[in-house]
Amino acid sequence: MMVDMSDSPKVFVVILNWNGGDRLAACLRSVFALAYGNFEVVVVDNASRDGSLEVAKNLFSRAHFVLNPENIGFAAGMNVGIRFALSKGAEYVWILNNDTECDRKALSELVLAAQSSESPELFSPRILTPEGVEWFAGGRIDYIRMRALHVKSVDAIKANDPYPTGYLSGCALFIPRKVIERVGLFDEAYFLYYEDADYSVRAAGKGVERLVVPKATVIHAEISSQNPEKTYWLVISGLRFFRSHTPLALRPWVAFYIVLRRVKNGIDKLRGKKEAFPVSSAYADFRTS
Q1: Which domains occur in the chain, in start order?
Q2: What pTM does this model have?
Q3: Residues 6+ positions from 277 with CB-CB distance below 8 Å
Q4: Residue 246 and residue 194: Cα distance in Å, rounded?
């Protein structure tokens, strides 16, 4: 059923694109089919060269398009779109990866959850793979193993009510304006990965709860997994995150664990493992950052 009340809050859907191929058009097609009446779309393009931006501009003239002169990364790129949305009066900002497709009711369910809350909260839909397998149903940060982990199934889903979790993925993060005013924007020190865990931890520090809305669903194709630089950015961003946010009592362990990982990386390089070389570069660049 179409939700199109005159007093429904204004939502801006912000999609970041970098060489999204045909995924961008599929994402936009699902967004413009959403069963919610009061939203606008802004596509922020990080200097794509594959023609995806041009196709999107031809097919979806209703969208706003903001072009960055170079690839400035996820956090900085999304911040461009969020600032644009706020300048246009957005009450909520829903950021989406360009390789997502939305269920028609997803935005309506997110707005309903946000409108039902009196305290500042962050929200995420359930996120599934194209095969319908749970990709994200919550998150937790493992400081012992230095990982931000997805929770792929929880009993709370059965109740269909929003439920709290440790951190939320940036894949489809729904952010009320009052949360942005309290927490700020993404930390642009994170070019790719861990900016969502950082934002969730900062939000928690400001008293903002993180909730998954199981009635809202999004499909994620995760084309970023095909990025040959993924390993490098996962490692260096993870190192930055845990340097910033590890609890004081665990910092000696994390420092020792990093030494162990560097030793293992050295052994892997000697064995000629391909992934060991971007890992080594990440450690080297982290030391000078």
Answers
A1: 11-224 (3.90.550.60), 246-287 (no CATH)
A2: 0.93
A3: 269
A4: 13
